Amino acid sequence: MAPSHTTARTGDGTITLTPANEASQSATVIICHGLGDSAEGFADVAEQLSSSLPYAKFILPTAPTQKVTMNMGMAMPSWYDIVGLDKRSNEFCKGIEESRERLAGLVQAELDVGIQRNRIVLAGFSQGGALSLYTGMQLPTANDEPPLAGIVIMSGYLPHESGFKVSPGLEGTPIWHGHGMSDPLVRFEAAQESEKGVTEKGATAYNLVPYAGLAHSVNPSEIADVLAFLTKVLPPSDDGKVQLKDPSEMSIKELKAAIAKAGLGRQAVGFAEKREFIELVNAHRAGKL
User: What are 246-268's pLDDT values in tens digits?
Assistant: First the structure.
């Protein structure tokens, strides 16, 4: 059975899983990892989820490396500095606005190629879930943009509450928050406080799901629930598909890159004319291969 997605890794640590037929993409899921991790830490989860969502692109960025106060100033991948895990310390999140801008930029890049905002989900684990919540509920709405399809938080929390507000029109954004009841790092009480804080700021669709016995991690039951949520908020759709460059307007280099990305290199062996490359890419996008 042919894989549903092709995987690409870039020098900045980003992992992207693109539908095997990239022309079929109608949704995007962006997953942010936790403190001290990288995109690789959730690559297997993304692969598992993507197999059930063949029309969705998955983007896994890696946080910048910076010193973390809570960890004795050690440098590690971190979306922002963490001073401590208590509510007061959680107000000091140096670097969070820069990471928020970066994540919002990934959303905008998907909008720029035709994916609708209500077909995009921001997701993340721990610090990455916190960033997804902080970013997703504060996206701009000056031009009546719709809410995201949803936000997924795994073992996360609301960071920098004093600087957080819900953008007008985004109150109904579906928020799914899974959290272990035995989490010793981000305690379940912190998840409850986050739900309360976000709701008090105006959110109307915050769903906190407890997992008995689960520590600061995820388990198969939670991943299954995440998939159920994604399937609900991102059902198959023929509307708002990605707008790809016309193969006839692509250079030979671009055509070869598209063919390699689609795993069609063997079928292009012996090609000498640009027309042949164009026909192969067109056939792939039309689902004829």
Answer: 999 999 999 998 888 777 889 99
* All residues at 6 or more sequence positions from 214 whose CB lies less than 8 Å from its CB, including other chains: 179, 180, 181, 182, 183, 222
Task: With H, G, I as helix, E, B as strand and everything else as coil, classify residue 47.
Answer: helix
For residue 183, indicate whether it is catalytic.
Answer: yes
CB 191 within 8 A of CB 131: no
- Which one from 51, 81, 167, 216 is the annotated catalytic residue? 216
What is the pLDDT at residue 244? 87
Q: Which stretch of DSSP H or E encloses residue 77?
A: strand 74-77
Q: Closest by alpha carbon to 102, among 69, 68, 71, 78?
A: 78
Model confidence, pTM:
0.90
C-alpha separations of 178 from 49, 132, 267 in Å: 16, 14, 45
Catalytic residue among 126, 132, 155, 194: 126
